[in-house]
Design goal:
By secondary structure, this protein is an alpha/beta fold. The chain starts with 17 loop residues before the first strand and ends with a helix. Belongs to the HAD-like hydrolase superfamily. S-2-haloalkanoic acid dehalogenase family.
Length: 254
């Protein structure tokens, strides 16, 4: 058996290949809020549309209320009550319901434009550097509930250097269902313990950890806006706790 490399006081491998004696081959990322600023990006697009229409919408509030429908929209799929559909479909349905609630009329083209706002999300300032550093020594890919076309568009626009596009649409399961994590590891021909999930959401890391993944919590204190109250601190015994992607890379020796 290979001898494990030296570790620091927190159990993080100094050579970046092992944590607690386990080799890490794939570093996988939650995307919304972790890799990209979904709230600021969607609010920007809503604000532009609102101004063009003269609607006077509170764009940040609209983005928040749209996002509030995100988890509930996936529940019927998680419980087998609905066939899997891509997140673009769920985003469209949530948007149409929100517009109806607000008694706002929108053309099909306007709805399409707003749905595609989720394809134009801005990365956090440290995103590209950190992923590029990790890519030199690890497989890097999204493990997101976003669909393939969305993840591709976000990556191409932002210059995110993924090795592959993985996630819900590929494995036909929405996080935090165990299948989302386990099938992703299987696609990479890796046992779960040789995969690490990087996320700014404690619930996501908890689900991944229960599946055997290693975990890295990255604090994103403004992912929910200036009044954020959740995910400001780790709520589990995560392997790495940092405030940026370059710090994740440093913890893994990259």
């Amino acid at each position: 058996m290979d001898e494990a490399p030296p570790v620091d006081g927190d159990g993080m491998a100094l050579d970046g290949t092992r944590i607690d004696g386990t080799r890490i081959d794939a570093v996988l990322f939650d995307v919304f809020g972790t890799v990209v600023d979904w709230r600021g990006s969607v609010a920007r697009e809503v604000e532009m549309w609102s101004q063009e229409r003269g609607l006077g919408i509170d764009a940040a509030d609209f983005a928040d209320r749209w996002r509030e429908r995100y988890q509930p929209s996936m529940e019927p799929i998680r419980h087998g009550e609905r066939e899997f559909v891509p997140l673009d479909v769920l985003h469209r349905e949530s948007l149409e319901a929100l517009l109806a609630e607000e008694q706002i009329t929108a053309s099909a083209d306007e709805i399409e434009r707003l749905v595609l706002a989720w394809h134009r999300l801005d990365p956090w300032p440290d995103t590209i550097e950190g992923i590029a550093r990790l890519k030199a020594r690890h497989i890097v890919a999204p493990l997101s509930n976003g669909n393939i076309a969305m993840m591709l568009d976000v990556a191409k626009r932002a210059g995110i250097p993924w090795d592959a596009i993985l996630g819900a649409e590929v494995v036909r399961a929405y996080k935090p269902a165990p299948e989302a994590y386990l099938r992703t590891a299987a696609l990479l021909a890796l046992p779960p313990e040789r995969c690490m999930l990087v996320a700014a959401h404690n619930y996501d890391l908890e689900a991944a950890s229960q599946c055997g993944f290693r975990t890295a919590f990255v604090v994103r204190p403004r992912q929910y806006g200036p009044d954020q109250r959740i995910d400001l601190a780790p709520e589990g015994d995560w392997d790495v706790v940092v405030d940026s992607f370059p710090a994740v890379a440093a913890a893994l020796g990259a």
